[in-house]
Design brief:
Two copies of one chain form a homodimer. Chain A is about 30% helix and about 25% strand. Chain A is of the alpha/beta class and about 260 residues long.
């Protein structure tokens, strides 16, 4: 049987320990192609590079493997991999991460890691974003590996609904203390911002973005509940942002606005 | 009665004609606070600035109005407005745009304009992103104004479901030819990328991102159908990206992974 082809990217950059751990797991399941940003791209969301040219160089970060580093965003990495490097070869799976820090709940929309996975899902590639709840550079990625391998294998064997991706977060716990995997919905939590104000040497004011995470959505079907209770959280996610439930509440707009009405406004 | 407070931002930058048109409409409905990027930020998606300090300066682009320009992304603009400039005053509405070019369908996830509106919705502020289907700098924003005013007024009077926002796109047509407003779902279309390869003066290869838009989702309940048929499209959108329908297909992962299983992988 032909080995599956696994595309790997991240948002912490090609030298981050997290992507190294992910490559180690992926190599046990298939052939890998690594295309990752040449510098950290956390918080880039679904940004793409349209006002600047993008550079793409072979990377020496993974000796013996096909690896590239890219000057663009995580989403750019996926686009370049699919459209320039692979030229028709379709990866069987795209994995992004392992992110240094949580991408549970609302973090999915700020996360370059998850946006890269979403871009792959837009290309029709089954895709998974992995994150470990440990922001430190020297985080221990070993405990999550068995679960990561299990989830990747499941998706390789069973495929994934078109346009869907998985947002996987791993608690910061020894493997023996992780209770298992939970399928969850995205908790409705948010960041409460606190900007830190400072002055530069020329007396000009500037701000640093910081904040604390606030969660009032405490139900046990959420990813945050699963993580707090020792589970790996898996949220099936998608790029259709339509709020179908809210359609009726704005439907009266259709009646209000005929050409006649519009002309008289 | 107290006049409503309307927060205004965009992704084309504080000097773009689109935001000027939006300010003109908003002024007829309430007091305005303008916080927009100091340079174009198209394609920034939900990016936030975490590795650099952010500058915020009073802007002279709107004489007589409270206006600021910000070195960060559209999402940064909303965060700074809410957390630094307003300090507790809650805007009654946030509007973003008018974008020079379409943000229908999948463009919502790449768009700084819509990400700013989504950020406001996360803050609990009813919010709307407006876009005109004309990419040119000198686009004529007049024809859309009656519809924009009507939609803003409707939201000011009726509020909006928490966590929801409206993605409004306006066809490039004279006002008299616009048939009205249609409430739609996001069409499942995508960009097919074609990278343009070039070489710099030192012989180094680089790429420009370009592409064409491809739509196979031709049903009449989509935003793309509405726009092609002369309607203003309104898609109620949200930040919950959970794919509830896909949950059952990955549910077997929960059974596979007990602590015992994980240890034996």
């Amino acid at each position: 049987m032909k080995k599956p082809l696994i595309l790997i990217t991240n948002d912490d950059g090609v030298t981050a320990p997290g992507i190294r751990a992910l490559v180690e797991v992926a190599q046990t399941l298939g052939d890998v192609l690594i295309v990752a940003p040449d510098s950290p791209q956390s918080g880039m969301g679904h940004a793409i590079t349209i006002h600047d040219p993008i550079r793409l160089h072979p990377s020496r970060a993974f000796p013996g493997l096909e690896a590239y580093e890219c000057s663009g965003t995580p989403v750019d990495c996926v686009k370049l991999a699919v459209n320039v490097l692979l030229e028709g070869r379709e990866p069987d799976l795209c994995v992004s991460g392992i992110n240094h820090g949580s991408n549970a709940s609302i973090n999915i929309i700020y996360s370059g890691t998850l946006s890269a996975a979403m871009e792959a899902s837009l290309e029709g590639i089954p895709s998974i974003g992995f994150s470990l709840l440990d922001y430190s550079y020297d985080a221990d990625f070993e405990q999550g590996k068995p679960f990561i391998r299990q989830i990747m294998q499941y998706v390789l064997e069973n495929g994934m609904e078109l346009g869907s991706l998985l947002n996987v977060n791993i608690p910061k716990l020894p493997a023996a203390e992780i209770k298992g995997i939970k399928i969850c919905r995205q908790a409705d939590a948010r960041w409460v911002e606190e900007f830190v104000e400072a002055k530069d040497p020329r007396g000009q004011k500037y701000y640093w973005l910081t904040g604390r995470f606030e969660n009032d959505d405490l139900l046990p079907d959420t990813d945050l509940w699963a993580l707090e209770n020792g589970y790996v959280s898996v949220v099936p996610s998608m790029h259709d942002l339509t709020n179908y439930r809210a359609m009726d509440s704005v439907r009266p707009l259709e009646q209000l606005s005929t050409t006649e009405n519009a002309a008289s406004i």
